[in-house]
Design goal:
alpha/beta; 7-stranded mixed beta sheet; Rossmann fold; 287 residues; 4-stranded antiparallel beta sheet
């Protein structure tokens, strides 16, 4: 475990408790917040070995197990195969900012929704992933080369897609710098992650504070960092990347899928609320 006495991003000592969760299983149970830059982060924070063990068979755990997630994703991939370019850009606006197709890297590809859009647009597919079950799944769905680990070739990829990965890493600054290194000049970097500045997060904490309660953690306990929009923008600008698009969006679950999910009613209602508010963000940059 790593205990932070200062903010991991801006090094400020002006940090306070933010949330705690003793009811769910996960590598982190408490969060701190930097009052200077707005970063919310796990504290104590699991180290690399702890996180690696947790992510083994990740898509068989927790919410993914209860929602029969792989079957749902298979259905969504099939739908993407019928979309034209305009429909893809409407469904996933972060794909609309690129100059040409080429080598597409999905970092931490999971079960491959990013790969589905890129394949339909005509990209050559590459991916990284640690979960062997997820690797087997995407290799059965797409013509993709999957790397289980880090990449070494600089200036190689035309489009790097990072969907809900950066909130899991231990050093976001170094992570963005590495993505810039392997991205071609003129290439596109798209990062999707929760938005700590969303109205839902703010309202939930405000209501808890009114009741003199410590807020519970309402996103994944595996998350190491949650960024407000302004801070994520600052981090990419510090790497010399040019922001082309930065927008907020909802959870993205279809209500028909929410009805089918095999989970307690309370959990379903939570997902419905999360699906109504814009709790996530995408930032799209060019090198």
């Amino acid at each position: 475990m790593i205990i932070h006495k200062n903010c991991p991003i801006c090094s400020s000592s002006n940090i306070v408790g933010d949330a705690i969760d003793l009811h769910r299983f996960g590598p982190h149970i408490s969060r701190a917040r930097c009052k200077d830059c707005g970063l919310v982060f796990a504290n104590p924070m699991a180290d690399a070995n702890d996180l690696f063990q947790y992510y083994n068979n990740y898509y068989e755990k927790d919410i993914y197990q209860s929602t029969d997630y792989k079957s749902t994703i298979k259905e969504e991939i099939l739908k993407v195969k019928s979309l034209d370019k305009g429909e893809i850009f409407k469904s996933a606006p972060h794909f609309s900012i690129y100059e040409k197709t080429g080598k597409f890297l999905d970092v931490g590809c999971g079960l491959g929704m990013g790969l589905a859009y890129a394949h339909q647009l005509g990209f050559e597919l590459y991916a990284t992933e640690f979960d062997q079950g997820a690797i087997n799944f995407v290799e059965s769905e797409f013509p993709v080369k999957v790397f289980k680990g880090e990449l070494s070739t600089a200036n190689y990829f035309d489009f790097i897609h990072i969907s809900h990965v950066i909130e899991h890493v231990l050093d976001p600054k170094a992570y963005i710098a590495e993505m810039k290194r392997i991205l071609k000049p003129g290439g596109t970097l798209a990062i999707g992650t929760p938005d700590m500045s969303s109205l839902l997060y703010k309202s939930y904490k405000w209501l808890n504070h009114l009741q003199l309660k410590v807020p519970r953690i309402i996103d994944g306990l595996e998350h190491t960092f949650i960024f407000p929009k302004h801070l994520l923008a600052t981090l990419v600008k510090e790497q010399g990347l040019q922001i082309k698009l930065h927008y907020s969006h909802t959870l993205g679950d279809k209500y028909s899928n929410l009805i089918k999910y095999k989970m307690p009613l309370k959990n379903k209602l939570t997902r419905v609320v999360q699906n109504f508010f814009k709790i996530n963000q995408w930032i799209v940059c060019v090198k």
